[in-house]
Amino acid sequence: MRKKRQIAVLVDAAEITSDDPNFEGHPEAPTTEYHVIGALRKLGYEVSVLGAVADIAKIVEILTEQKPDLVFNLTESFEGDRGMDKNIAALIEIAGVPFTGTGVAGLMLCRDKRLCKQLLSLHKIRVPRFYSLPLGHKVPVAKTIKYPLVVKPALEDSSEGISNASLVNNNAELQERARYMHERWEQPAIAEEYIEGRELYVSILGNKRLTVLPPRECSFESDDGCGPQLATYRVKWNEQYRKKWNIKFGFAELDQATLKNIGRVCKKVFRILKLRDYGRIDLRLTHDNKVVILEANPNPDLAYGEEVAEAADKSGLSYEQLIDRIINLALRRCE
Ligand SMILES: Nc1ncnc2c1ncn2[C@@H]1O[C@H](COP(=O)(O)OP(=O)(O)O)[C@@H](O)[C@H]1O
Ligand SMILES: [Mg+2]
Questions:
Q1: Which atom of ligand 1 is nearest to the CA of 130?
Q2: Among candidates 72, 130, 81, which has minimal Cα distance to 277?
Q3: How confident is the model over 263-280, as pLDDT tens digits?
């Protein structure tokens, strides 16, 4: 009989609770860790859970002693620092174990919302015009780019730091928001032109051959048109708030030519930013059908019911099949 493959699931240390360190109970718990680990067990893998703890020697020791066939990398930060996601990838790489998802280079490129936009522009991919608001510098007056602007922390994810006040209409609002960003987030900010249009999320699976999954859409349809225009933190995480403003996540209805063009651009983005195995590209589709890339997510949420899983399901891949596909992509890439 073939030996069961051993998968070590590496998770953010903060996600591990002392009463259930191996994520065996609480099947109803809504966290990505429970969903992915549950799926791996159902698939028949031998699963061990490993926390990305401060004592990194311990991680290396376990990985080199256990020698799992693969690390399923669910970490998004190290000790709360998102910028260290690439360092964790580097650590697994040094331990010599294959792991799922994007590696050091891609994580580094995607982490900085300015760097990835510069790189995409070089490749003639449309991105919002922007300028950087570094910490400790006077905020310049926007001269060459047009209001309204969206002001965001340059190094965060998951709509952290994004609220309705992120959309600024004049220099006074820009100055105020930039100051707040610097104080609250202690990092550089980015101010980019607001792109009016449909908000789409495009999940991709693959490496050499890429599969574009059916695009998802966040539609903003408040009755009086005065509701939020951005996928703010509350829009993303608060269902009641979405109900109040008639904001819905669903599948995007698009004509074949537009769909094809979106797929072509997103595949290019995936490759330029060195994503691996799976990823999700966030974009806006303007009224004249131009694809404007907002960002690429090398670590999109793999929870059941989230964008990637929903898109996979629509394309005929069950949740377990999605998780298995990611494992096989990673293993094949490392052969
Ligand atoms: N330039 C922009 N034009 C229009 N909407 C934007 C722009 N930048 C950000 N947004 C809105 O804010 C959301 C979060 O921005 P994004 O750059 O994807 O950051 P995050 O990493 O936090 O998801 C987007 O999904 C979109 O709704
Ligand atoms: Mg986003």
A1: 1
A2: 72
A3: 999 999 999 999 999 999
